[in-house]
Specification:
The chain is α/β, with parallel strands linked by helices and 192 residues long. It has two domains: 34 residues; 153 residues, Glutaredoxin, CATH 3.40.30. Helices cover 43% and strands 22% of the residues. It is built from five helices and eight strands. It has a six-stranded mixed beta sheet, with helices on one face. Strands 2-3 form a two-stranded antiparallel sheet. Helix 3 links the parallel strand 5 and strand 6. The longest helix is centred in the first third of the chain and has 33 residues.
């Protein structure tokens, strides 16, 4: 009798584990989307939180999101110590150089605790190439305004009217910016 009770108990535990795993498999994608772990569209139009910071790599320049109205802007939260951030920087730089004359801008916001001088040294000596798009230092209020930046990289694509149209957590996939930029340009052509 005792042995049979142990077998029943083990079977119940096994069934409970299977049920829990099944629930996790079904619910995980929904939970990840809610927490912003995937490329997603803003449900309703949300104005990008405005900020104004000093540029690290262009002394005397103020990076004010308000001044970028009329451009497509990628606000990219990153850090020097972050491998995915370092991996995407050369692609961001290349895309920026190719499209800045067409109204595309990038504002890099470093979350480094080491300070501006450390970030400036990184920008100038980065093995992936010198970063020419403007970089500033994110502070707590900016991070909070953008939904608390707990992991990096995180990027926000902002349309010409200042609305957040995409939020990307993690490294931006290859070809993604080209796809989105072409969509913006097609929308502008159809409006004319």
């Amino acid at each position: 009798m005792k042995r049979r009770n142990i077998q029943i108990f083990k079977a119940l535990i096994f069934i409970a584990v299977i049920v829990c795993i099944s629930i996790l498999i079904i619910k995980t994608p929904e939970l990840l989307k809610k927490k912003g772990y995937a490329v997603k569209k803003s449900g309703s139009k949300v104005l990008a939180p405005l900020f104004s910071v000093s540029s690290v790599n262009y002394k005397g320049k103020i990076l004010s999101l308000k001044k970028y109205r009329g451009k497509i802007v990628l606000v990219n939260f990153w850090a020097t110590w972050c491998p995915p951030c370092r991996d995407e920087i050369p692609r961001l730089e290349k895309f920026y150089k190719l499209h800045k004359k067409e109204g595309f801008a990038i504002i890099g916001l470093s979350v480094n605790n080491q300070g501006e001088n450390y970030v400036l040294h990184f920008i100038k000596t980065f093995k992936g190439g010198i970063i020419t798009y403007p970089v500033g230092m994110a502070d707590y209020s900016i991070e909070k305004a953008y939904g608390n930046i707990y992991e990096i990289p995180q990027s926000f694509l902002i349309d010409r009217n200042g609305y957040v149209v995409k939020h990307i957590t993690g490294e931006i996939p290859r070809g993604y910016l080209t796809y989105e930029f072409n969509k913006f340009n097609k929308q502008n052509v159809s409006k004319k």
